[in-house]
Amino acid sequence: MTAPFVTFEGIEGSGKTTQILRLSGYLAGKGISHRVTREPGGTPLADEIRSLLLSQREEFVFPETELLLYEAARAQHVRSVILPSLSSGQAVLCDRFYDATSAYQGFSRNIDAARIDWLNDLASGGVSPDLTLLLDVPPADGFARIRGRGTRPDRIESESVEFHGKVREGYLRLLERHPGRIVRIDGTLPADDVFRRVRETVSARLGW
Ligand code: Z5A
Fold first, then answer.
1. Which of 40, 70, 100, 204 is the most exposed place for a label (fewest CB within 10 A)?
2. With contact defined as beta carbons under 8 Å apart, do 137 and 187 qualify?
3. How many domains does the chain have?
4. How far is CA 147 from CA 100, 124, 172, 189, 192, in A?
5. Ligand 1: which residue has its CA nearest to atom 42?
6. Cα distance between residue 152 and residue 147, in whole Å
7. Greater confidence, 145 or 128?
8. DSSP state, 32?
9. What is the CATH number of the domain that holds 36?
10. Strands, E, within 23-178: which ranges?
11. Any residues with Cβ below 6 Å from ligand 1, and which?
12. CB neighbour class for 163 (10 Å; exposed up to 12, middle 13-18, buried from 19)
């Protein structure tokens, strides 16, 4: 039996990083062995692909190119980090996984869902999250939080509010498609309240 695989999803600024770090601290306090990672990234090669994907560039990046780069990073990450951790009994908390590809490259960039499913399956080697926490916030709220950080927006953050609105819609459609795996949490609540719901959910679903 492998350890639990938990993913966090949501539009930018939805609070994934904040909540994943809180959950990690909570699990550490309970002595539960786990590892925190993110996509795209998690290995040196996948981190290089991340830089390619997120950096601003003059050359137009075609949706198919973007899709294949995300999947390439995932194939490397799953095989060198996620699978070995899960098989050794270490739980994995991952900031984004293949639902992000369905929401961003599928719903927002309009690439056919069946092709995305096929590529997600290939890249993930059949590994599927046991639980996905969807932190749901309207794009305007996510944008306001990101602006508050005062950093220069990356290539995907620079997309329009409409683009991010479609991403959110995509996530809500995925929730309908996978009601047993994906749990929606209202990400507009104060961070303490969001974390209380995260804790209640992992306790009910995974016994943590
Ligand atoms: N992408 C893709 O297109 N396809 C794929 O297959 C994958 C990814 C895997 C990765 O960027 C980009 O790649 C991402 C999707 C795309 N692009 N976008 N947009 P990333 O990893 O750098 O960015 P991100 O995943 O969007 O994360 P983020 O912008 O850092 O947001 P976050 O992690 O969800 O939020 P946070 O850092 O926890 O919080 C943001 C701010 O809000 C921060 O100042 C917090 O203190 C504050 N915050 C957090 N929670 C709250 C609450 N509850 N209330 C008020 N303020 C809060």
1. 204
2. yes
3. 1
4. 22, 33, 24, 18, 21
5. 145
6. 9
7. 128
8. -
9. 3.40.50.300
10. 34-38, 91-95, 131-136
11. 10, 12-18, 38-40, 70, 96, 100-101, 104-105, 145-146, 148-149, 156-157, 190-191, 194
12. middle
Range of the domain at 119: 5-206
Mutate to test the pocket of ligand 1, among 9, 11, 17 (most ligand atoms within 8 A of CB): 17
Backbone angles phi, psi at 45, to 5 degrees: -70, -45
Residue with tokens 């786990």: 34
Residues sharing a CB contact under 8 Å with residue 145, sequence separation 6 or more, in sequence order? 13, 15
What's the pLDDT tens digit per position in 141-171? 998 888 877 788 888 778 888 999 999 999 9
Prediction pTM value = 0.97
C-alpha 68/C-alpha 71 separation (Å) is: 5
Nearest CA to ligand 1 atom 35: 15
Q: In what order do the strands lie in the sheet with 5-9?
A: 34-38, 91-95, 5-9, 131-136, 182-186
Lookup result for tokens 């047993």: 180
Token look-up 């995300």 returns 70
Residue bearing the CA closest to ligand 1, atom 46: 18
Structure tokens at 6: 């938990």
